[in-house]
């Protein structure tokens, strides 16, 4: 919706009272205020927003300025193409000053600027934010995800965006920590306690873990530590990530 400019518009602050008022204000784009100044010779548009538009690249101030890697953006608005001639702060907002695209110049980077385009862009940004939030929450499960077979980790990476390398590294640390715990309390403390206080290690080694007796975990603890070291070495030297050997074996034999 485009409306006539209102000098009492609540979005205008006291610093604007000496500035010329636009002939029209477009309120249709969520979060943006588009002020249109027709002008006598060359019209101008000022877009005021609180969200920085990182992909809006202005034309260089000097024609000889190197623009490699930062091609100026052509803004398609109202059926015409506009160039960004200036970007400046305005209180807590940012103003983008647009002028008609110069004739003869090629549109190398074009961004459509309209209510529909901005709504779609904001929805995509919201989806990306949810994706990033989900990935961050999954990082808490990396010590367990890294124990999964290689194929399962690849599938999770494709679907949920996890980092298999980081997951494997965290799982190696977790596996080594568990192994050291059972080695220390199951062997070292138990051996010392045999001469001092019988069953001194029984207070620290759980009776059952994941349905298996604590004595079983104590017995395989050296193997778990060795496996964690081997998996870490494969990741560090060859960039190959593997899960727990038993889970890898089950994964391979399953149809």
What key phrases describe this protein's structure?
41% helix, 2 domains, 255 residues, single chain, two-stranded antiparallel sheet
Order of helices and strands: EEEEEEEEHHHHEEHH
- pLDDT averaged over residues: 80
Low-pLDDT segments, ≥5 res: 1-15
Helix content: 40-55%
Strand content: 15-25%
Based on Cα principal axes, name the global outline. Answer: elongated
- Whole-number total of structural domains: 2
Please list the strands of the largest sheet in the order they lie side by side: 1-2-3-4-7-6-5-8
Evaluate the radius of gyration: 31 Å
Class by alpha and beta content: alpha+beta
Tally of helical segments: 6
Sheet with most strands: 8 strands, mixed
Taking the alpha carbons of the first and last residues, their distance comes to 60 Å
Number of strands: 10
Describe the structure.
By secondary structure, the protein is an alpha+beta fold. The chain folds into two domains: 2-113, no CATH class; 138-253, no CATH class. The chain is built from six helices and ten strands; from the N terminus they run E-E-E-E-E-E-E-E-H-H-H-H-E-E-H-H. It has helices at residues 115-138, 142-145, 150-160, 164-195, 214-238, 245-253; strands spanning 2-4, 24-26, 32-37, 44-49, 73-77, 80-90, 93-100, 109-112, 208-209, 212-213. The protein has an eight-stranded mixed sheet with strand order 1-2-3-4-7-6-5-8, with no helix packed on it. A hairpin with a 2-residue loop joins strand 9 (208-209) and strand 10 (212-213). It is elongated, with a radius of gyration of 31 Å. The two termini are 60 Å apart.
């Amino acid at each position: 919706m485009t409306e006539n400019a209102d000098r009492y518009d609540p979005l205008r602050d006291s610093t604007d009272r000496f500035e010329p008022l636009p002939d029209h204000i477009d309120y249709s784009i969520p979060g943006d205020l588009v002020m249109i100044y027709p002008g006598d010779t060359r019209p101008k548009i000022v877009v005021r927003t609180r969200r920085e538009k990182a992909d809006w690249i202005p034309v260089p101030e000097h024609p000889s300025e190197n623009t490699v890697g930062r091609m100026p953006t052509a803004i398609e608005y109202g059926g015409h193409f506009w160039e960004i001639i200036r970007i400046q702060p305005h209180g807590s907002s940012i103003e983008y000053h647009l002028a008609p695209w110069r004739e003869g110049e090629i549109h190398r980077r074009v961004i459509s600027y309209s209510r529909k385009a901005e709504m779609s862009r904001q929805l995509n940004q919201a989806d990306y934010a949810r994706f990033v939030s989900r990935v961050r929450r999954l990082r808490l499960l990396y010590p367990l995800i890294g124990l999964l077979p290689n194929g399962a980790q690849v599938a999770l990476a494709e679907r949920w965006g996890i980092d298999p390398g980081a997951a494997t590294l965290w799982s190696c640390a977790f596996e080594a920590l568990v192994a050291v715990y059972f080695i220390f309390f199951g062997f070292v403390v138990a051996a010392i306690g045999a001469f001092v206080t019988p069953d001194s290690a029984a207070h620290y080694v759980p009776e059952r873990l994941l349905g298996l007796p604590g004595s079983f975990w104590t017995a395989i603890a050296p193997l778990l530590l060795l496996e964690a070291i081997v998996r870490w070495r494969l990741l560090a030297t060859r960039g190959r990530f593997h899960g727990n050997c038993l889970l890898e074996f089950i994964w391979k034999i399953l149809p």
